[in-house]
């Protein structure tokens, strides 16, 4: 039994109650029970967090790079020593199944390992001999305070995408977790405090839209990053753009799977189940639209329905179930509304996930079971809009070109996967699928932390993606120095008017 949880802000090394704002209840989606409260912080609190980060920036940016890497490595060690506690924090308020929560924490540890390579990735460039005794030097310098907004579905992963890279490159950070899943960051912030991270380097402020909008005109904020919906990403881009701030904004998704006639069927079904129903379909890379060639369409649907009916649904802390609840009663209502829309559009509801069987103790939880629509066409609303739940839409296509055409015509471009053993199909799909991330015979095409993560089209507002070199580029600025060396024993230099090297150097 979890004791009552009072979520707090963390500003300049101090855990603080919200005195100017309001609180809202924090619920366990598995049971529907209120387990705590989370603040909706005031604009004043948001600005105070930024001020603390700005005050910490000069000393932190001057901290030697190896010392900053020590803290990143200590974060990794702290997570390794507290992996189960961190996973349970995700399973409690986000209700991600405990096995998947452990996997999320493990992926963040891999990201931290990658972030320890920042000294190599942050190296600049030098060009010798621009002119007589003159060289050019480019360094990647920190900018100041960055702010980040996290969604409810990956409270640990988004921390890993933002904070290690931001502070590793010398910036300070203000982080706003989702009010629906704030517990992980409470635990992680305490671990960062325990390892001795200096006060103000990382700050946490909880709240709603006003908390974020306070950053737009704050002169101490260098940039804002987000993982969330496309409308929210566009709103932040507009607000930051008016004040010249950098943004790294990952938006919504509607991911495709293409199933070819030679698909390894057992592997295909297994991966689609994990992708579509894992995290109750609440992941940005969850397969949602499945384009199946006509030769195997009937067989695939039969196999998918049989496997989907055997998916167990229940409490996220129960190791014997496959899928936990969705995040809230509002999310459950939205998903069930899409099921009604699909029926009204003429799609066949082959498996209805509404009102799944769960334990009596969990009857008040927010459960939607595996749901499968067949006879779906790309123009249908259920095929075009992000449902963010365990709903699969199966559509019949004539060949690989039909699948690629459906992907290209969709306004989102996050991820797409293909199941095939044909090398021609594989290369064609990699080259032509109009998305930012491609998978072959995998259900979740999440790149390794050394590579950038993010989509294209409506799934990415701006240019920068998270992880890898993209993250280094976002959290730094290119600073160029032109350096002339003068021999102190050579006497005074000739007048500028007689020095062609000087004239050519400053001509631009």
- The number of domains is 2
**Extended strand count:** 23
Which percent range describes the beta-strand content?
15-25%
What is the terminal separation in angstroms? 69 Å
Biggest β-sheet, characterized?
Answer: 7 strands, mixed
CATH architecture call of the largest domain: 3-Layer(aba) Sandwich
Low-confidence stretches: none
Helix-strand makeup class: alpha/beta
Q: Percent range for helical residues?
A: 25-40%
Question: Considering the protein shown, what is the CATH homologous superfamily of the largest domain?
Answer: Aldehyde Dehydrogenase, Chain A, domain 1
Strand order, biggest sheet? 15-16-17-14-13-19-20
Mean pLDDT: 94
CATH class of the largest domain equals Alpha Beta
CATH topology of the largest domain: Aldehyde Dehydrogenase, Chain A, domain 1
Q: Report the principal-axis shape.
A: globular
Oligomer: single chain
Rg for CA atoms? 25 Å
Count of alpha and pi helical runs: 17
Provide a descriptive summary of the structure in words.
- The protein is an alpha/beta fold and 508 residues long.
- The chain has 2 domains: 227 residues, Aldehyde Dehydrogenase, Chain A, domain 1 (3-Layer(aba) Sandwich); 195 residues, Aldehyde Dehydrogenase, Chain A, domain 2, CATH 3.40.309.10.
- The protein has 17 helices and 23 strands.
- A 7-stranded mixed beta sheet has the order 15-16-17-14-13-19-20, sandwiched between helices. Strands 10-9-8-11-12-22 form a 6-stranded mixed beta sheet. Strands 1-5-4 form a 3-stranded mixed beta sheet, with no helix packed on it.
- Strand 2 and strand 3 form a beta hairpin.
- Helix 2 runs antiparallel to helix 4, helix 3 crosses helix 4 and helix 4 runs parallel beside helix 6.
- It is globular.
- The mean pLDDT is 94.
């Amino acid at each position: 039994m979890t004791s009552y949880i009072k979520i707090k802000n963390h500003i300049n090394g101090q855990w603080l109650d919200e005195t100017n704002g309001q609180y809202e209840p924090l619920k366990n989606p598995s049971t529907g029970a209120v387990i705590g409260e989370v603040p909706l912080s005031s604009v004043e609190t948001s600005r105070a967090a930024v001020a603390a980060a700005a005050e910490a920036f000069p000393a932190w940016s001057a901290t030697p790079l190896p010392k900053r890497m020590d803290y990143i490595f200590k974060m990794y060690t702290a997570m390794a020593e507290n992996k189960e506690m961190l996973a349970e924090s995700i399973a409690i308020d986000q209700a991600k199944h405990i096995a998947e929560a452990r996997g999320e924490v493990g992926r963040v540890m891999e990201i931290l390992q990658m972030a320890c390579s920042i000294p190599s990735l942050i190296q600049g460039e030098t060009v010798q001999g621009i002119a007589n005794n003159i060289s050019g030097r480019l360094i990647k310098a920190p900018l100041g305070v960055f702010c980040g907004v996290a969604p409810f579905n990956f409270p640990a992963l988004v921390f890993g995408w933002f904070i290690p890279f931001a502070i590793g490159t010398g910036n300070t950070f203000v982080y706003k977790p989702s009010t629906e899943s704030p517990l992980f960051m409470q635990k992680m912030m305490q671990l960062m405090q325990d390892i001795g991270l200096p006060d103000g380097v990382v700050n946490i402020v909880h709240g709603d839209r006003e908390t974020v909008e306070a950053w737009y005109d704050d002169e101490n904020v260098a940039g804002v990053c987000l993982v969330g919906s496309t409308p929210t990403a566009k709103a932040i881009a507009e607000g930051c753009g008016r004040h010249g701030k950098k943004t790294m904004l990952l938006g919504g998704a509607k991911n495709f799977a293409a199933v070819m006639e030679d698909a390894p069927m057992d592997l295909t079904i297994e991966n689609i189940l994990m992708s579509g129903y894992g995290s109750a379909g609440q992941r940005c890379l969850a397969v949602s639209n499945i384009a199946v060639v006509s030769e195997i369409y009937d067989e695939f649907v039969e196999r998918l329905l049989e496997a989907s009916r055997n998916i167990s649904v229940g409490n996220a802390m129960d190791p014997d179930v496959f899928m936990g609840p969705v995040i809230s009663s509002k999310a459950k209502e939205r998903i069930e509304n899409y099921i009604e829309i699909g029926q009204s559009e003429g799609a066949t509801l082959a498996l209805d996930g509404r009102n799944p069987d769960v334990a009596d103790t969990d009857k008040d939880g927010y459960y939607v079971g595996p749901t499968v629509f067949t006879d779906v066409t790309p123009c249908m609303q259920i095929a075009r809009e992000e449902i963010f739940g365990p709903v699969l839409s199966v559509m019949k296509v004539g060949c690989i070109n039909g699948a690629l055409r459906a992907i290209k015509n969709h306004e989102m471009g996050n991820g797409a996967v293909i199941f095939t053993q044909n090398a021609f199909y594989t290369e064609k799909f990699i080259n032509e699928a109009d998305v930012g991330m491609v998978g072959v015979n995998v259900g979740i095409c999440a790149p390794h932390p050394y590579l950038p993560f993010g989509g294209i089209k409506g799934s990415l507002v701006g240019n920068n993606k998270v992880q890898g070199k993209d993250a280094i580029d976002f959290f730094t600025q290119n600073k160029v120095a032109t350096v002339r060396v003068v021999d102190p024993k050579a006497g005074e230099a000739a007048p500028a008017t007689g020095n062609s090297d000087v004239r050519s150097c400053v001509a631009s």
